[in-house]
Specification:
Mean pLDDT: 94
CATH class: Alpha Beta
Number of strands: 8
Number of domains: 1
Strand order of the largest sheet: 4-3-6-1-7-8
Structural class: alpha/beta
Number of helices: 7
Largest sheet: 6 strands, mixed
Distance between the termini: 34 Å
Low-confidence stretches: none
Order of helices and strands: EHEHEHEEHHHEHEE
Radius of gyration: 16 Å
Strand content: 15-25%
Helix content: 25-40%
CATH topology: Rossmann fold
Length: 225
């Protein structure tokens, strides 16, 4: 039995364009994000969808709702396990502030993200376990169906580490996902495989942000989460 999961990173938020380490800060959708949502919804308009799951944060819920508008019979479910990393004291700081105030965590983010321990928040190991547990619950509850998951960059990197590398340590090599990027994951006979990763074909060329591995030390200023 084949289960298809469309994993979608949320649309662009104001925190993204302001270069903030958002975490669970509930930033509003940006004007560019609204355009992305309209095009994402059209992408899925004629695709059979049985259920839609979303992180509780507004930027993810707006992304899920863009798909749901064309699928009124598909239940839209909030799944707490899909929420972005709890960054604790680092939440919503400017990226330059993070590097200055929390250099050890920032260095881990650059080089060994699996070892990150966010002050007052989660460890990366905790994120990996709860995000993958949420994915497993969704797959188990939707055998043979097609579902959409709207979530966050940090969550997606942890899911990618598991599927592509089999462990948390794989996050050191994990893919970086664009806003509204669609990754198609297939579950069959207990195994997971990618059919597509970070597909932005629903956006015109001028709206596609090239995936960039952010680095606090020597980085280019793009948002990491």
């Amino acid at each position: 039995m084949v289960t298809t999961v469309y994993l979608v990173r949320h649309c662009q938020s104001m925190g993204n364009i302001q270069h903030r380490f958002q975490g669970r800060f509930d930033a509003a959708v940006s004007p560019e994000g609204e355009k992305q949502l309209a095009l994402l919804g059209l992408r899925f308009r004629n695709e059979p969808i049985d259920a839609i799951y979303t992180s509780p944060l507004a930027r993810a819920k707006a992304t899920a709702q863009a798909v749901a508008q064309y699928h009124p019979n598909a239940p839209l479910v909030e799944e707490p396990g899909l929420i972005e990393i709890d960054c604790g004291e680092m939440e919503n700081l400017q990226l330059t502030e993070v590097a200055e105030r929390f250099p050890v965590v920032a260095r881990h983010w650059d080089e060994t993200p699996d070892l990150c321990q966010f002050p007052g928040g989660e460890t990366m190991g905790q994120v990996y376990r709860r995000a993958n547990a949420a994915l497993d619950r969704i797959i188990q509850g939707n055998q043979g169906k097609k579902v959409v998951i709207a979530t966050h960059g940090g969550v997606l990197r942890n899911l990618y580490a598991r599927v592509s590398y089999g462990s948390l340590e794989g996050i050191r090599h994990s893919k970086v996902f664009g806003n509204t990027g669609v990754s198609t994951l297939v579950a069959e006979d207990g195994a997971l495989r990618w059919e597509a990763v970070d597909d932005l074909s629903h956006l015109p060329e001028g709206m596609r942000r090239p995936p960039t591995d952010f680095a606090f030390f020597g980085g280019d200023g793009r948002e990491p989460v």
